[in-house]
Amino acid sequence: MNRRSFLTTTAATAVVAAAGLPARAADPLKVGFIYVGPVGDMGWSYQHDQGRQAIDKEYGDKVVTSFIESVPEGPDAERALTQLALEGNTLIFATSFGYMDAVMNVAAKFPNVKFEHATGYKRADNVSTYDARFYEGRAIQGTIAGRMTKTNKIGYIGSFPIPEVVQGINAAYIHAKKVNPDVEMKVVWAYTWFDPAKEADAAAALIAEGCDFVLQHTDSTAPQAKAQEAGNVYTFGQASDMPAFAPKPRVSSTIDHWDPYYIARVGAMLDGTWASQATWGGIGTGMVGIGEITSEVPEEVKAEALALKDKIASGEYHPFTGPLNKQDGSVWLAEGATPEDGDLAGMAFYVEGITAELPK
Amino acid sequence: MILGGIDIIVLSATLMAASTPVLLAATGELIAEKAGVLNLGVEGMMIMGAVGGFAAATVTGSPVLGFVGGALAGAVLAMVFAVLTQVFLSNQTATGLALTLFGLGLSALIGKGYEGVRPPPTPKLDLGPLADIPVLGPVLFSHDWVVYASLALVAGTWVFLRRSRAGLILRAVGESHDAAHALGYRVIAVRIAALAFGGAMAGFGGAYLSLVRVPQWTEGMTAGAGWIALAIVVFASWRPERVLIGAYLFGGISALQLQLQAAGYAIPVHLLSMAPYVLTIVVLVLLSALHRHGAQAAPADLGRSFHAAR
């Protein structure tokens, strides 16, 4: 294709997309994805790609899916999203928090393209958000870690200090503390979602500080490998089950099940019922799965963790139930109170007892 | 030894291991650039080394063969670059960038079957009583053989460039390929050899990443280490001993900031992460100020294609 015809086609596609000509019934629905890491990260992006493949399997010829992987958060995301829109995708999934402003900008330019943004909080008529209550899984991890730790030090590798990650740190700490009052939480921020070498170094730094549990909120399996090398250190699968590291160091996992949501949203596009909405699924709705608790975990701890899981799933128990204070000692939740979803979605403080300082 | 909550011994030991991949890659790139070739494909060669080394190690069960495989994979990719830029005289900058993209893609393809596989462990060298010396023992004498090999390679590079006839020829080719050609040296052959060495070193460094530092194969796992290696060569003003300082400085700061955090310090991570790059710019400014009337620090024919007119 020479340059002129490229420009013409691009312009033509843009016009078609902007005018929003109804696609002929025979045309398959085009669905695009952007991922923050490679699909082979075996964690976050891998799991989203499983969801994409589930769409293909469910709808067959009626849909064509495509993806762009390793898209950095920032200006590149806007370019990638525009490219997907120009290619005629009418439903686009942007699967990382940092794509939020890029999604809003591109969505304003393509009013007839529907966008789905994972873990964000900005919506528009053609932008939905969806998120999973990862903190519910963290409550279970905290319980297991608090019961099993011998050094009473739990390490946590954070990606970026955003609400989604802070919720996880707080939930893990609260539940570890509940079963083990002596427990201490050490947090290292990697400032990346995916950088195996850095994640491994972060795990090594925590292990050197005496942590015998390393929880991660980054996307690769590098911390698992580092824990395996160190010997008596335990981890949890993050986003994906990470079964290659079971039964030890990985003693359980939080699994993101995007498949049902993706299939439902594509279905809504196909029958014309798609509308902007905010979805926040948890263990109860099946969006958050708890991977097998391995034989390394004592039976009674396993039973306790599973009981907690059932109570969260049925809605009987909320992982953030008062009395809970903020780090500075001020009251956050009174006895028996639970937070509004809106409050949780903007969580920007540690709970009382965590000694580290939350970066701004 | 604890200083301000930071275990200096652990920090120094981590620093050496964390810096080894970029140290190896930067030393290789130094030789290529000294010969007058700018190969921006370091990242691509590193990741090919990472996947090649990982595959070789898991298939043969020998980490040593893994490192050999990694170096070979890097060198093979460098040969693609050599053919394109030295034989077909393509633009070095563009070809180098393409090489990085090609390496990232090809490694992802090759690595598909190796995700979640555990490589054979590379043991720490047993240096007997040396490792028991307080402070120095754990810092200097408790590493795997690759760390020592990387130091030996830096020393060897220094000797080669400064004290050997072959090194003099290589530098001559990089400073003025026309003059070297007029003297009867085979410019293209020297450059291809330098590129092969550069690729092998980058691949060696990549293999260290996937076999020791992480240790596993993950797509895109170099995550920019190759670009840091390129920056270090400039930071070092094309001198091997300064490459060592640069690599340890870059590795040291990244290890330090993680340890500071683990120890509970609230530190401005972004400032620390930025520091090596700011230093590189400062060094560049200083160099151009110092060398205003004399020779430039960069090889004079760096990045220029050579075509024998006669």
Summed up:
Chain A has 360 residues and is an alpha/beta fold. Chain A has helices at 3-19, 44-59, 75-86, 100-109, 134-148, 163-179, 196-208, 222-230, 259-270, 299-314, 341-345; strands at 29-34, 63-68, 91-94, 114-118, 127-132, 153-158, 184-189, 213-216, 234-239, 250-256, 278-281, 288-291, 324-325, 331-333.
Give an overview in words.
The complex is a heterodimer of chains A (360) and B (310). Chain A is an alpha/beta fold. Chain A folds into 2 domains: 3-132, Response regulator (Rossmann fold); 134-255 and 289-345, Response regulator (Rossmann fold), CATH 3.40.50. Helices cover 39% and strands 19% of the residues of chain A. Chain A has 11 helices and 14 strands. Chain A has helices at residues 3-19, 44-59, 75-86, 100-109, 134-148, 163-179, 196-208, 222-230, 259-270, 299-314, 341-345; strands at residues 29-34, 63-68, 91-94, 114-118, 127-132, 153-158, 184-189, 213-216, 234-239, 250-256, 278-281, 288-291, 324-325, 331-333. In chain A, the strands form 3 sheets. Chain A has a 6-stranded parallel β-sheet with strand order 2-1-3-4-5-11, with helices on both faces. In chain A, α2 (44-59) links the parallel β1 (29-34) and β2. In chain A, α2 (44-59) packs across α9 (259-270), α3 (75-86) runs parallel beside α4 and α5 (134-148) packs antiparallel against α10. Chain A starts with a helix and ends in a 15-residue tail after the last helix. Helices cover 69% and strands 1% of the residues of chain B. In chain B, strands 1-2 form a two-stranded antiparallel ribbon. Chain B has 310 residues and is mainly α. Chain B has helices spanning 8-34, 42-60, 63-87, 92-111, 136-140, 145-163, 165-175, 177-182, 187-213, 225-235, 240-262, 269-290; strands at 2-3, 6-7. The model of chain B has no long low-confidence stretch (mean pLDDT 89). The longest helix of chain B is centred in the first third of the chain and has 27 residues, at 8-34. In chain B, a hairpin with a 2-residue loop joins β1 and β2. In chain B, α6 packs across α7 (165-175), α6 (145-163) packs antiparallel against α11 and α11 runs antiparallel to α12. The radius of gyration of chain B is 20 Å and the shape is globular. Chain B has a domain at 20-222. Classes of the chains: A alpha/beta (360), B mainly alpha (310). Chain A binds chain B through residues 37-42, 70, 155, 186-192, 194-198, 200-202, 204-206, 208-209, 220-222, 225-226, 228-229, 242-244, 355-357, 359, and chain B through 7, 10, 14, 18, 21, 108, 111-112, 115-118, 121, 209, 213-216, 218-225, 254-255, 258-259, 261-264, 266, 269-270, 273.
